[in-house]
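Chain A, query sequence.
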Amino acid sequence: MSTKPYDQAFKYLAEQDPETLLLLCGAIRPGENVRIERLSQELTVSVKIPDQLYLIERNGVKELAHIESQTVYIQEIPARTLDYYLRAWIKYQLPVISYLLLLTRDGLPENTTNVAQTSVNTGELQITVRYHIIKLWEMEAGVALASNSHLPTA
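Chain A, predicted structure.
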């Protein structure tokens, strides 16, 4: 039995009388003064490209490493990190570990630790993302370079 006719009828009625549908679902109350605007059903969003995204597999377990590199810390970094984190998770359906590689101290708040988090609360969806902050100026150059034998030597 095909559900297509029901689907088509539902979509037609929803377009013709959204208020009744929203009342039926409990999204609005009877007599409530609201303005209803039907939005496009297409949920495409602009393309945003993270600096680096890697798939890591260890002992049969896969995860993504997301790395953002910034010369200057700006207030939008936590929200941007959350955005990239969510997009990576939606696309790959794998755990994501985010890293913020800061190349300079410029703009960095004084009390910033090496792990930060940002949250979004949108109605019934609440998301908190932790990300690791790597402060390049705090690393000893010799130790950082010696940690990877694949780096070219002078």
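Residues 52-146 form one domain. The two ends are 71 Å apart (CA to CA).
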